[in-house]
Each structure stands twice: as C-alpha cells, then as structure tokens.
Amino acid sequence: MQPGSMIEGQGRTELVFEGFFAHKRSGDRAAEATTQAAADVTRPTIGLALGGGAARGFAHIGVMRTLIKHGIVPDVIVGTSIGAVVGGCYAAQQLDTLEEWARTLNVRSVLSYLDISLSGSGLINGKHLAARLESGLKDTRIDDLPIRFAAIATEFNTGHEIWLTRGRLADAMRASYALPGIFPPVKIGGRWLVDGALVNPVPVSAARALGARLVIAVNLNSDLFGRGTIIASHGSDDEDLAEAAAPPKSNGFRNMFSRESSLHRQFLGRRGRPGIPTVMVEAFNVMQDRITRARLAGDPPDVLISPRLGAVGWFDFHHAQEAIAIGTEATERALEGVNEAITALSQPGNGHSVAK
What we know:
single chain, eight-stranded mixed β-sheet
C-alpha cells in the first residue's frame, strides 16, 4: 500500500469515529433535554377526598394502595367517617397495621368491639374500638403529620361543619365516625361532635381549601344513587287492616319479664320488622345520598372513584378483604382518567413542592 493511500484511509477512519461520537453527544444532549423538560414540569398538588360508609370504607385501602403503586402520591388527605380513619392511618404511616387488622376480622371479633350501652348517648360505647385505634396511633397529632390532613365532623347542636386539622389524631377519627345514635358524641375543644357525613359525606371542598389543585374523590355509596324516587300514590291496604285488627300475640308469663329477650328484639329486630340499628342506618343512608348528590354537583372532583360495594353492608366489617379488592379494581379502572387529569393540570416549573 502506498503511503498516500494509508494516510487517506486513516483520515476516513477518523471522520467515521468523529461522526459516531458527534452523533452520540447529540443523542446525550437530547436525552438530557428530555429529562430536564420532565423535571421542569410541576405536577399539581394532589388531594384525596375519602367518603364515609362504615365497613365499606375498607375499600379506601385498596384505592390508596393502587394509587401509590402507580406513583400517584397524595399531598392532601381529607376524610369523613371511615375515610378519616383510613386517611389518617396512611398519613400517620399506620396503613399497614390497619390493613393487617382489617383482614383478620371475622364475625366473632367484630362483635367483641360492640360494647353495647343503654345508659349513654349511643347504642355502642365505642371504647373497645377507640382503644384499638389508639394502640397504633398513640398520641400522634395532626399537626405533626408529614402531609396535610383533616377529618370532617359535625357539631350536632349547631350543624356546623368542623374541620379537625390539629390536635390528637385518634380523637379526630372518633369524632368523624360518631354515627348519631350508634356511637356517642365526642367532645373536642369544647364542642360536641358527631359523624361528618351529616354535612359533608365526600369532602371535596375541604381538600381544595387545604391546597389541592387536583382532587380525587372516593364515593363509597354510589350504588345507592337511584334508590330515592317518588311514589306518587300510596296508602293502606287490606293487609294493614288485618294486622291492626289482630289481637296481640302472648309470649307467656316468663317472656313478659325477660328484659334480655326484649332488648334483643329491639336491637336486632324480628321477622318483618327491622331493629333499631337497621332503621337508623337506612335513614342515614337516605340522608347521606341526598347530601352527597348536592355536594358533588356543587363542587365536583377532578376524578371520582366509585367502588361498587352493593354486596358489602355498613356493618359487614368481616368482609374487609372483599371491600379492599373492590376498591383496588375500581381504582385500576380510573387510572387513565387520573393520569389524564395530572397531565392536563401539570405546568412548567422548577419542581414540585408542597408546603405543609
């Protein structure tokens, strides 16, 4: 090979390598630019509004697990009733403990928490359940939580909507789930408080007020919608007249003085006639349905997750695993909408930060 040819070959090789490295540097710069652009996008402050629904509320665990699994971490949590319990446990880093306990519940263990009381202002004293909550939370204060949190309660004698944003977390939870007639009111800061679902069953408005730009709401009672309709013509019939004319049944001399038997019938009901808790809860359902419709219509969330919990009753705490699974499934269906809302509300910025 001639010297000139060798030099020419070396020159071509150098040009090839120079082109390769130039292309690589260009690719690196493009990747860096893409990464920087992603870093410069500020995602919206995310708030969760967790609704009430007693045992149905274990679905909130499935909702939160699924959102977090997909990187959708809340900055603000506001809960009503059982929503305050699940949201508060997450904020206090006790969600694992709550879920483990919920999954072990059966009919017998649930009954052990029902400390029936006929001398107070609620059918259930609630001390056993409160002790169970406090065993994990101890003296945790809302003020010290790493994220913004509020539990919604109602001042029963004024109807005021109370946002519990400071003080002992366990006390706030108890007040938020104190269903009137079932649990006694809870006194906090000089006010007697009961269940927040009386005024704000799915607290979207509170989540926004606490700084959430994007609100994901969870309505546990969506399958109650449509129950309330108008029966335009109704009245007594022959069956009612026959029952009224029938002589009262005698249960014998012994049952006349059986206080336990009488209380059992009043509490659990008997065939054809509901017991006290059933009447109270069904009446509460009707009221909550109407209030939820009005509140969500006036202040709709950006994304609404509606687990179909028709098979899980208010006192079916032993169906926790089923409720959690339903919450998970409902959230997975809603993920596309959640991500679209996050993208739509994201803005150029210098990184996401939320002041507590």
